[in-house]
C-alpha cells in the first residue's frame, strides 16, 4: 500500500471493509478487503468514477459502462485461518501456511495471479461463539473504608450503547459475562455480593429489552471470579432462579506461573485433589438455586499470570489439564474449551468410577461420544510405576471401574478395545513433542492435524498404563445402563 489514499465506497454489506491506495510499486492501485462475516462471501467488481472521487463500488456491477475491465492479470494475496479457526495462530497465504523457514526467516510471500475479467472472491470465516466481558466497575467508586472494595451502582449506559452497536451491525453475541474476578476478596478489586446481584439484574433487564426474542437473546453469565462460599450463596440466592444463565468461576489452582515447585505440584495427586472442594462447593450452590445453565468454568489456566514458561506448553501440563476436564465433568461443570481427543471420544454422560490401588492413577469414564460403549481416560502421574488395569461393572452400586477388583467378576469383552496411549519423547514430560502409539504428533506438511488412529487390543488382556503417560480407552461392548 502506497502513501496516497484513494476514496473508495462499497454499500452492499457493513461486514465488508474496503480500503484503497496507490500501489507502493507503480503503476496501479492496491486494495485491502476485510470480511468480518462468518457466514457471507462476496464477489467484487471494480468501477472507476474519476470525477466523482468514487473509485470502487461493489454495488455497480449492474452498470457495465462504468465497470473496470483490466487487460493484465491482477495480483491477489488471500489471507485465511488454518482450519477456519480465526482465533488460531497459523495464517494461510493463498492456502499455504505462513511459518518461518528452517533458518527462522520470513517465508516468501508471492501473489496468486488471477484473470482480470473475473470477480474478486472474498470468502467467509468460520463459525465462532462470542462472549463479551462487560466492565462491571464502570462509574463505581473505591471504598474509603475497605481496601480493594468498589461501591455504588453500576452504570449501564456504556453496555447499552455497545449492545445497540452489535445489533445495528447484525453481530450475533452468544453471551455477556458481567465483570472479571470481583467475587469474594477479588483480584485487586471486589464488589459485595448484594451490590453485584442488584447490578446483574439491571444487565439482565437490559438484555431482555434490547433482545426481546428469547430464541436469539444472549445469555447473562457471572460472577466470573474465584469461588467464595458465602459470596456465591448470597449472590445466587437472589439472582440464581431467572437472572443468571450460567454461574461462572475461575480455576487457577497451580498458583503463580513463576513457582519453581510447579512441576512437583502437577504430579502430586493430593495437591490436584484439593480443587475438588471448589467444584463440589459450586455444584452444591448451583443445585440449590438452579441457574438455568448450571456451573461453568469460564477461565482456567492452571498457573496465574500468563502460565508457566517451562510447563504450560509441555506434555506435563496435560496431567493437570486433562485431570481438570475429568474433575469438572464429574461435578457437572461446563467448560469453554476442550482437548481434541477428549472432545472426540468422551461423551457428555459421566459415569461413576473408582480405583483404590494408587492415588497416582487418575481415572475418569464417560459414555462414548460415538455409541455404543464407554470411553475412559487414565492419567498416570507417577514417574516410576506402571499399572495393569482390569474393569469390573457394578451396575447396582454405581461403580463402573475398579482396578482392585481383579479377584471379583471381571468384565470380559468380545470386541477389541480401542486405545490411544499418549507419552513423551525421550521420557521428557516438559518437552513439547507428544507420542501417540509411539508416533510423534506433529502437523502434516500442510499443517493439518495428523491422523489419530487407535491401537486395537484383545479385550481379554489388561490395560497397560506406562509411567508418566495418559491413555484413552474406548470399549464398545461394555454395558453401562446409563449409556444405553
Automatic annotation (TrEMBL):
UniProt cross-references to Pfam families, sorted A to Z: Glyco_hydro_79n (PF03662)
Superkingdom to which the source organism belongs: Eukaryota
Annotated coiled-coil segments of the chain: none
Recorded family membership: Belongs to the glycosyl hydrolase 79 family.
Protein name (record): Heparanase-like protein 1
Record organism: Gossypium hirsutum
Amino acid at each position: 500500500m502506497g502513501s496516497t489514499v484513494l476514496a473508495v465506497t462499497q454499500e452492499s454489506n457493513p461486514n465488508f471493509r474496503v480500503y484503497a491506495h496507490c500501489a507502493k510499486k507503480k503503476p496501479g492501485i492496491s486494495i485491502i478487503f476485510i470480511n468480518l462475516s462468518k457466514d457471507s462471501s462476496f464477489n467484487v467488481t471494480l468501477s472507476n468514477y474519476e470525477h466523482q472521487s468514487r473509485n470502487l463500488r461493489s454495488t455497480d456491477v449492474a452498470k457495465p459502462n462504468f465497470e473496470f475491465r483490466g487487460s493484465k492479470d491482477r495480483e491477489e494475496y488471500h489471507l485465511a485461518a488454518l482450519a477456519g479457526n480465526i482465533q488460531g495462530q497459523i495464517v494461510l497465504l493463498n492456502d499455504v501456511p505462513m511459518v518461518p523457514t528452517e533458518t527462522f526467516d520470513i517465508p516468501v510471500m508471492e501473489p496468486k495471479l488471477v484473470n482480470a475479467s473475473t470477480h474478486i472472491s472474498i470468502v467467509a470465516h468460520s463459525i465462532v461463539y462470542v462472549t463479551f466481558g462487560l466492565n462491571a466497575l464502570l462509574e463505581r467508586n473505591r471504598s474509603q473504608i475497605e481496601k480493594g472494595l468498589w461501591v455504588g451502582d453500576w452504570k449501564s449506559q456504556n453496555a447499552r450503547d455497545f449492545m445497540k452497536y452489535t445489533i445495528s451491525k447484525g453481530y450475533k453475541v452468544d453471551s455477556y459475562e458481567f465483570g472479571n474476578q470481583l467475587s469474594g476478596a477479588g483480584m485487586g478489586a471486589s464488589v459485595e455480593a448484594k451490590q453485584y446481584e442488584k447490578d446483574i439484574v439491571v444487565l439482565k433487564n437490559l438484555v431482555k429489552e434490547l433482545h426481546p426474542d428469547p430464541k436469539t437473546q444472549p445469555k447473562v453469565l457471572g460472577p466470573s471470579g474465584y469461588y467464595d462460599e458465602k459470596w456465591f450463596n448470597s449472590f445466587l440466592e437472589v439472582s440464581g432462579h431467572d437472572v443468571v444463565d450460567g454461574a461462572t468461576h475461575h480455576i487457577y489452582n497451580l498458583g503463580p506461573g513463576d513457582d519453581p515447585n510447579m512441576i512437583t505440584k502437577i504430579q502430586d495427586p493430593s495437591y490436584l485433589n484439593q480443587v475438588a472442594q471448589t467444584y463440589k462447593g459450586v455444584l452444591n450452590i448451583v443445585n440449590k438455586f438452579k441457574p438455568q445453565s448450571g456451573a461453568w468454568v469460564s477461565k482456567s489456566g492452571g498457573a496465574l499470570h500468563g502460565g508457566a514458561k517451562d510447563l504450560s506448553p509441555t506434555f506435563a501440563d496435560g496431567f493437570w489439564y486433562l485431570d481438570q476436564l475429568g474433575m469438572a465433568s464429574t461435578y457437572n461443570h461446563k467448560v469453554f474449551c476442550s482437548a481434541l481427543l477428549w472432545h472426540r471420544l468422551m461423551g457428555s454422560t459421566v459415569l461413576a468410577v473408582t480405583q483404590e490401588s494408587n492415588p497416582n492413577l487418575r481415572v475418569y469414564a464417560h459414555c462414548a461420544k460415538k455409541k455404543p460403549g464407554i470411553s475412559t481416560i487414565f492419567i498416570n502421574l507417577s514417574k516410576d510405576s506402571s499399572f495393569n488395569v482390569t474393569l469390573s461393572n457394578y451396575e447396582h452400586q454405581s461403580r463402573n471401574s475398579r482396578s482392585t477388583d481383579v479377584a471379583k467378576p471381571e468384565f470380559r469383552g468380545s470386541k477389541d478395545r480401542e486405545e490411544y496411549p499418549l507419552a513423551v519423547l525421550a521420557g521428557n514430560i516438559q518437552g513439547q513433542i507428544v507420542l501417540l502409539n509411539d508416533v510423534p504428533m506433529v502437523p502434516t506438511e500442510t499443517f493439518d492435524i495428523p491422523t489419530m488412529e487407535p491401537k486395537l487390543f484383545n479385550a481379554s488382556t489388561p490395560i497397560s498404563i506406562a509411567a508418566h503417560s495418559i491413555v484413552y480407552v474406548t470399549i464398545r461392548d461394555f454395558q453401562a445402563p446409563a449409556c444405553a
